Amino acid sequence: MIQKKEPFLVNRLKSVGYAFKGMLVLIKTEASIKSQLFIALVVTVAGFYFDISKTEWMAQLIMIGMVLSIEGVNTAIENIADFIHPEYHKQIGLIKDIAAGAVFLASIIAMIIAGIIYIPKIF
């Protein structure tokens, strides 16, 4: 029996629903995402307070999105690794460290960009 394919729009709406569910799970369960969302809120308020330019807003929003997205991917990698090999394993540890390193790298770049934007405005 051939299963009837869903219409494109229905399929896309379901995909958005799954993505939204995943985002909520990430926000509810991951302390690092909560911390990063707090930092995102602080720099967003700072952006309005210091009346940053459109270009500065774009850089700031790109970095917020990048850090949060990479943190989500890092969480997924950690969960997959723990599912596949629940006990400690050197190679799984390395994989998790590399994923965490990607978040760290994006966070460092985000802090540099924030410094470029806000240090001249503060001093």
From TrEMBL:
Specify the protein's topology with respect to the membrane: Multi-pass membrane protein
- List ligand-binding residues for substrate: E71
Residues binding ATP, per UniProt: Y18, E30, E78, E87, Y88, H89, K96, D97
Active-site residues, Swiss-Prot/TrEMBL? E71 (proton acceptor)
Q: Which organism is it from?
A: Winogradskyella epiphytica
Q: Which UniProt keywords apply?
A: ATP-binding, Cell membrane, Kinase, Lipid biosynthesis, Lipid metabolism, Magnesium, Membrane, Metal-binding, Nucleotide-binding, Phospholipid biosynthesis, Phospholipid metabolism, Transferase, Transmembrane, Transmembrane helix
**Transmembrane residues, as ranges?**
31-51, 98-119
Molecular function (GO) terms for this protein are: ATP binding; kinase activity; metal ion binding
Name by which UniProt lists this protein: Diacylglycerol kinase (ATP)
Q: Which GO terms describe its cellular component?
A: plasma membrane
**Positions contributing to a divalent metal cation binding:** E30, E78
